[in-house]
Amino acid sequence: MSTALNPILSKQTPTQTLDFVDAMTSLASGVVVVTSRVGGRPWGMTITAFTSVSADPPTVLVSVGADTASASSIAETNRFGVSILSADQLAVARYGAAAGAPKFLEPFVDPGSASASPAIDGALAHLACDVVHAFPAADHIVFFGCVRAATGSAGGDPLVYGRRAYATVSSSDSERNPR
């Protein structure tokens, strides 16, 4: 939905927008790379706008800029992947977050993988998803994906982003809840 069609959104001032962005930095979020293929090559974009929607059927959502190569690729193939990054993957997060830079992932994925949703090597988990819904929202597209495959690692601490900085969240083994 464009802001021109929504009178509430079109009344936002630049100050209100900046205040909103500043307020949202208070929310620490897990860092993921949304993966796809662009020109047959693995491509990824770092985002924090990701969440689980349902366990049955397993469904997630990602929100990506509408004018990005990721959005175009996902819309064209109806597939995407989500690699949940570990605290050790700061370089991957920064690579996928570089504004305006190509985000081909060859240095970070298994070169033999032909998956439509390539997995980042060493990620805490990876979800391969088929798009079931896509909705425009302001200057983004929200893709809902049905998870067709999920893989996880043996452990590690997640990478998070908040207050405009990357950080980690860890707890001692005694504090972790076993499955």
Write a structural description.
The protein has a 7-stranded antiparallel sheet with strand order 3-2-6-7-8-5-4. The protein has a 3-stranded antiparallel sheet with strand order 1-9-10, with no helix packed on it. The protein contains 4 helices and 10 strands; from the N terminus they run ααβββββαβαββββ. Strand 4 (50-55) and strand 5 form a beta hairpin. The protein has 179 residues and is an alpha+beta fold. The protein has helices at residues 7-10, 14-24, 69-77, 90-97; strands at residues 29-30, 32-38, 41-47, 50-55, 58-65, 79-84, 125-137, 140-152, 159-162, 165-168. Helices cover 18% and strands 39% of the residues. The chain has one domain: Roll (Pnp Oxidase, Chain A), CATH 2.30.110. The protein is globular and about 50 Å long.
Number of DSSP helical runs: 4
Taking Cα atoms only, what radius of gyration do you get, to the nearest Å?
17 Å
Secondary-structure class: alpha+beta
Enumerate the strands of the largest sheet in spatial order, edge to edge or round the barrel.
3-2-6-7-8-5-4
